[in-house]
Structure formats: C-alpha cells, structure tokens
Amino acid sequence: MLANPEQKGSKKAFPMKGKDGKTRCILAPANPAFKVFEKAIRSIIAIMKLSPSPLFTGAVSVKLKFYLKRPKSTKRPYPSVSPDLDKYCRTVLDALTGWIYKDDGQVVVLVATKEYVQKNNAIGVEIEVKHIEEIEKGDLLL
Length: 142
Prior knowledge:
Elements: E1 11-17, E2 23-29, H1 34-47, E3 60-68, H2 85-96, E4 107-116, E5 124-131
Helix pairs in contact: 1-2
C-alpha cells in the first residue's frame, strides 16, 4: 500500500472547564496525521474490494512490513529510532477493525518490521492477514 506510514502515538490530555464549572480532561491523539494514513488503508481495502465477506472471525495472524523514507541526514542501515514500530502497528490494526476483522483483539500473532526503502522505491506498508488455522503450528512466526 502506498501511503506515508504514520504512528498513532500516545494521547495528549487537555483540561477543559465544563458548563458546571468542573474541570475535565479531553484526550486527543498526539499525532493527528495518523488519520490520513488510517483513511488511506481503508480506502485501498474498499477500492480493491479486499474486505472479506463476512469479516474474519476467530483468531488471526497479521504480518506488517513498513517501508519508510530514509532521512537525508542518516547513515544508519535500519530505522532504529522513533517513531516506534508498535505505534505504527497500532494504527494499522485499528484501521483494519471493521474492514478485515471485527476487532483487533482477534490478532493472536503479530509480526512486524520497519525498514528504509531504497532511493525511488515506494514508501508504505505491506499487510497480510490470515486465519490462524491457515498457518502450520511450527510456522507461527510466518
């Protein structure tokens, strides 16, 4: 999938006074750009008619490969810095909810990598979802 991977990130809390004078906290995503990435994932699923009918039920495995643009200033071979891989994963798993499976709690095996793309190659994420029964017991790491 061609889209700039964005992490969902943590949430920020903002204190707000209600009409009753009490202070409450409103939670908002620390990185609002994740919504564009999430929408791109869902759009591609819809356009390519990739959504299974019915949605996956039961345990599933998910394999994610994130392809990131290498910053000009870095010489390191791997993207071993922020953003964190688990936050990228959270964005994708949430985006697949209701489109591929009913709930991301169904994911029992998750294999994910992030790597820099070579010059002029596409950035994005490769997504593979399978019923857990489709994977041989000795091959749970895909």
